[in-house]
Every structure is written in structure tokens, then in C-alpha cells.
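Supplementary Note 3. Input sequence used for the single-chain structure prediction.
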Amino acid sequence: MEASCRMDKQHEGDSLTFRNAAQMGRDSAKSLEQPKWSWTLKLAVYGTSLGATLPVGYCTGVVNSPAVHMRAWCQEALLARYDLQLSADALELLWATVVSLFLVGGAVGSMTGASIANRFGRRPAAFICGLLLGLGAICFYACRPLRSVELLCLGRLLVGLAAGLVIACMPMYHSELAALQQRSKLAPLCGLGLTVGVVVAQVFSLQTVLGGPEHWHLALALYGIFVLVCYAPFRCYPESPKWLYIVKGRKVEAAQQLQLLRGYARDSEALQAELRDMEEEARVKSTPSSYAQVLSNPQLRLPLAIVFIYLGGQQLSGINAIFYYSVSIFRRAGLSSQQAEFANLGAGCTNLAAAMLGPILMERFNRRPLMLFSSFFCCVFLFLFAMLLQFIDLYSWFALACIVCIFLYIVVFQFGLGPLPFFIGAELFEVAPRSAAMSLGSVVYWLCNLIIGMTFPTLQSAWGALVFLPCSLTCLLVFMFTLRYVPETRGRDPSEVAPLVADGFKSKRPRH
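The predicted structure, written as C-alpha cells, is reproduced below.
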């Protein structure tokens, strides 16, 4: 017992020494050469955003519009190939399987994200994402000509695995490539890529574009062009300097990658300052890195809770329910089928326009006020939407008010609830536990996504418009949790944030 206490105190002393030294290094670095926005950094970050996160968003939204044609094709393909006639219930079960395989793959991919990122590196993890997405596109393109429902299911599983890896690894990869001064601009790119992908999918899956009965397989596979173009220069994408230095001890390679990413000269004092920070962080040997170590460490309980609540709360806040069932919602609000389809596209474009403000907002405003503003007004607009939709027949203007509430909800969602959950883990956790923590958060993300997909139709049938009240309550809980427990992370290294949350749920209320 005494030995254990001495070890804990020694570890705390080492951690404190590291944080003090790192802080001194950062303070002195402020007067040094500023990191440049090198072509290597831009190519890697924008390339993986367009080549991996955008396709994941695309695969999330592409099946909604052509779903009726895909179901009919599944019935025809099974009858022609196996002489198997499915009943209505069996066909519904098959379609639920096709949809849910993406979510199951996401959860499984998330669980493997930490081991892949730690063992092979952040860059190989990004390559595996692209490989899985490319194989999925091939499956989608070939399934209809070959009349193979199996290829359709395999494609959904492969892109789901890629999606899990993307959510777990890509924000971490971007964060470790960027200097501290550059992270606010680059941090929202993962969420932005997903949003862009959804909008692109909505456009190309329209019935008048590629969403018809003859071309839906082309709509499913179209994202492969983004993967092919953006992964063509993959050899130029750098590895994370922090992973090279701290996890693998390959110090010379880490210095070379920093020179490429920052534009530093070999004898630059700014380069040496970053390397000294990494050396101090690498000296803390007992930092947890496995799932079991991260889950059992009391100092990481509050950061884990923040990641879980933010990623889970994002999915349970109603955004996916809005987009999954937006066409039917717009129809109930009084629009025709064609008007509802274009209103759905308008909602997606609004979501994209608001998401593009993310890098600007994250650079100019602190994280806490953005999340508090976003979660509070998401709660308000969802509550108003539920009440207006429930009593839509009372007044004629209630239908228009419902549509306005949806669009306002989408805008304020992208101020905080949309982008922040994807990268908050990279700003809370130091390098060693980061991959495990973000993988666990990604699992929560996909499980909550699965819960919404499986339970929302049943609850909507039972409760009607009031099904959005639990979503409104979720936003309120995120608001209260942020107000009480979440520290400000903007412009701070994770080693500065760690002491603010080290006491778990007993941590003092953050003042800024």
C-alpha cells in the first residue's frame, strides 16, 4: 500500500514537473518563429478531410432518397438469383439489416481505432480508412449489375468500418499535425467534411439525378471519386510527429516531419522548443494508453465523461432524426412531395452553410460559450418544434413555424453541438491515452446513432411529434453538464487542461 502511494506520488510529481516544464517551453516559444501553413500540412489535412470524412458523410445520407428503389431491387435480385420471394416483413428486416450494417461497422471500426493508431501510426490508420472506402465503392458499383444483395451488404459494412476509424482517428491525426496556434482552424474540419458529404449525397441521390431505379448504384459509389483523387498523393502525407517521438521514440523522423509541417529550418529554435516539449511529455512513462487503463484511471474519468456526453449527446440531440425523416416531417407540415424533397435539400444546404462558419467561430470564440449557446438554443427550438408539430392543425401558420424551427435548430447546432464533439477529445487528452479515449468516444457515437435509427420510428408512431421532447431534454442536459464541468480548451495544450479535470466530478467549476 505504501509502495503504491509512493508510486502515485512519484507519478504525480513527474506529471507536474512535465507540465511546468512544458508551460515554460510554450511561454518562451511565443517569442520564437511562428509555424507556417506549409503545403505538406494543407495537403494532408484537406486531403484526408475530402478523401475520408466527406465520403463517410456521403454514405450516411445517400440511401435515404433511393431507398424505395433499392428495396424493390433487393426483392427482384433475390427472386432472380435464388428464386426467393420475400414477404413484406422479411423485406423490411432485410432493409433494416442493410441500413444497420453501416452503424454496426462504425462501432466495430471505432473499437479497433486505438490499436491501429497506436501500433501502426496515425497515417496508416488514415490509409486503411481510404482503402475500406474504396473497396466499399467497388461493392456498391458492382452490386446491381451482378444482382448481388451480398455485395450491397458487404459494401455497407466496409464503409461502416471506415466510418468508425475516421471518427476515432482523423480528428486526432489533424490535431497532432497542427501546431497549437493552428488547431482552432483545423479542428472543425472533420465535422465539416461529414456535413459536406451529406449535402453532396442529397444532391446526387435526387430522383432526377442518380437516385432513380436505374442509377442508384452509381449514386452509392460516386464518393469513390473523392477517395481516388485525394488519396493519389498519399505518399506525401506526413506521419504525426508526436506519435513518432512519444509513442515510438523515433526522434530524428519526428524532427524531420516537424520541419516539413511547420517550415522550420533544421537549426530553428522554434523546432527545438517543440522537440523539448515532446521530450518532457515522453518522460512520463506511466501514462495510460490501453482501454482498461484509460477507463480505470480516476484522473481521466471527467475527460472521458465529456467525450462520451458530447458525442452521445450530439447523436441523441435529434439531428439525425431530423435528416432521416425530414421529408416526412416537411410533408406533415403541409408541403407536397416534391416541395418536401427540395426543402430537405435546403435544410442540408443550411446545415452546410452553418458548418462552414465552424473554423471561423472556433478561431475567434472560446469553446465553452459556443457549446452553451448551441445546446441551449437547440433545446429551445426542438421543444418549440415538437409543440408546434403536435398541434399543427390549430393554426395555419404553425406549419411555417415548424419549418422555421427546423432551420434555426440546424444553424445553432453547427455553432457547437455539431463540430465540437469530434475534436474535444484531442484537446482534453495527452498523446498516450488519446487514441483509446477517442476510440471509446467513437463507440458511444455509433451506439447512440444506432439507438436513434432503431427506436425513433417506433417512438414516433407511439408519441407522434412529442418524440422530439427527449431530444430537447438531451440538449438541456448537455448544456447543464457543460456549465458545471467542462473547462475551456481553446489555445491550451492538453497538459494545461489535464489539471483542471484531474479531480473528476469534484473538479472546481471552471471560470473561463
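The longest helix spans residues 431-463. Residues 247 and 482 are 31 Å apart (CA to CA).
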